[in-house]
Specification:
Strand order of the largest sheet: 3-2-1-4-5-6-11
Distance between the termini: 47 Å
Order of helices and strands: HEHEEEHEHEEHEEEHEEHEHH
Radius of gyration: 19 Å
Helix content: 25-40%
Structural class: alpha/beta
Strand content: 15-25%
Number of helices: 9
Number of strands: 13
Shape: globular
Length: about 325
């Protein structure tokens, strides 16, 4: 991606929450590019995690909490805020309030530093549960945030809008949906990782629910490419959906994974209720205005995940 490498040659990119899935996806993608003078990437996390990234990038670790992070020692060209957890902490109201406060602190420092661009990793969770039949979610859907996590993202987006209005620094809100790729922790409580764990243990895949809830899956390489191009291309303030527009029901996903293992058909257990959320984005703004496209199929992405996970220790079956 010449457009990305040319724009970021010799620059400094700060990724808050950079040891999470989004941060890893970005760094692995950047390390795959050809560089004349590779950028410096500052990776922050609350607890310093010794993650080694092989490649041409100069990766620095900054142990910092968003509320107290001091950026004065750095010259930062671009800032990516990817610091909110989507698992257990995503339901912790006190933690989420802390992140929102930290977002303001970071934005204040970025304003003084006059960064060239700011990217906030938001979520499709801002739209709440979508029960409209087969209706892809567009950016003009109401942001209702029917979860603590969704509400925190709405609050963060508001901070970012105020930041742009007071500074005119290009500010991009990436409303991210559902993803696949080898940097997703196999122990996460997602349908995708649950099915892969079962298949790797040679167990029949079990669906708790109807299997009709629908998602879409964007590979982490496409995710990283889209985020970086949006950061570099957007010159104002914009909220943009990031994800695949191709719907996949939970049942279809289970069948895809079973077929990759030549395993028996999945089993549906309807004893657990399931909200049939149609969680699929419209990405017309990204594709038509910014010229973005998807290069990696779900099947290819799943194959890479399986290859990576087979090289790790698969958790034993819970007792």
């Amino acid at each position: 991606m010449k457009e990305i490498s040319t724009a970021l040659e010799g620059k400094t990119l700060y990724i808050a929450g950079g040891t999470g899935f989004v941060g890893k996806a970005l760094i692995h993608f950047l390390n795959s590019l050809s560089w004349h003078k590779a950028p410096t990437v500052i990776v922050s996390s609350r607890g310093i995690k010794a993650i080694s990234f092989e490649g041409p990038l100069r990766v620095l670790h900054h142990q910092a909490d968003l509320k107290t992070a001091d950026l004065s020692g750095y010259h930062i060209d671009y800032f990516i805020h990817a610091a909110t957890s989507t698992d257990d902490e995503g339901n912790d109201i006190h933690y989420l309030a802390s992140v929102t406060e930290g977002t303001k602190s970071i934005l204040d420092q970025c304003a003084k530093m006059k960064v060239s661009g700011f990217l906030y990793i938001s979520s499709g969770a801002v739209y709440g549960i979508n029960t409209r039949e087969k209706a892809r979610i567009t950016e003009d859907f109401p942001t209702v945030g029917d979860s603590a996590y969704g509400k925190s993202k709405i609050a963060g987006e508001k901070r970012c809008r105020e930041f742009f209005q007071s500074t005119s620094i290009p500010t991009t809100i990436a409303r991210c949906f559902t993803f696949s790729g080898p940097d997703i922790d196999i122990n996460r409580p997602y349908a995708l990782t649950s099915f892969l764990r079962q298949a790797l243990r040679n167990e029949k895949i079990t669906i708790l629910g109807t299997g009709l809830a629908t998602r879409s899956y964007m590979d982490q390489r496409d995710l990283a490419k889209w985020l970086l191009l949006l950061l570099l291309k957007n010159k104002s303030f914009e909220c943009i959906n990031v994800g695949s527009p191709e719907p996949v029901s939970i049942l279809e996903l289970a069948h895809k994974i079973s077929s990759l293992f030549n395993a028996p058909a999945p089993e549906i257990r309807r004893n657990v209720s399931e909200r049939e959320n149609y969680y699929v984005p419209s990405v017309d703004i990204a594709t038509e205005k910014y010229g973005l496209s998807l290069d990696i199929s779900l099947e290819e992405s799943l194959a890479r995940m399986i290859d990576r996970y087979r090289k790790t220790t698969i958790p034993s079956k819970p007792t």
